[in-house]
Amino acid sequence: MMTLKLQIVIGFAIVVVFGILVNMIRKRSLELKYALSWMAVLCALLLFDCWPGLLIVVSEFLGIYAPVNMIFFLGFCFSLVIIFSLTVALSRMSNSIRTLDQTAALNEKRLQELEAELKKAEERQEG
User: Does 77 share its domain with 122?
Assistant: First the structure.
């Protein structure tokens, strides 16, 4: 069981991290859609910090032998969710970059064609 002093320290740390997260969103250095999962985890941690007995109840409900094992299991699941969401975001960005690169190449080709046509038109006017 946690002591009151440890609960206060953990609660303070959670509030500080939450403030840092909100500040990063405000400064636009972190997008809200990526921060929502972190906010959900912080809220869950704060809930378990304020009511440590809740951790025992939830772990027993899920059939997990020790509450500490549940924390590790939830951390593992959260890590998998984060990895999956980042993989999806990376795939989307990769597709966007490929499309942007192809569009830029087509625009460059079209620009070269227009410059060649303009050069031919100038040569005809001079000649």
Answer: yes
Q: At what angle do helices 52-62 and 67-126 cross, to 10 degrees?
A: 90
Residues in the chain: 127
Q: The whole model's pTM is what?
A: 0.68
Q: Mapping DSSP to helix (H, G, I), strand (E, B) and coil, where does residue 95 land?
A: helix
How far apart are the two ends of the chain, measured CA to CA in Å? 95
Task: Report yes or no on 59 lying in a domain.
Answer: no
Model pLDDT for residues 41-81, shown as the tens digit of each residue: 899 999 999 998 898 999 999 999 888 898 899 889 989 98
CA distance 75 to 73: 5
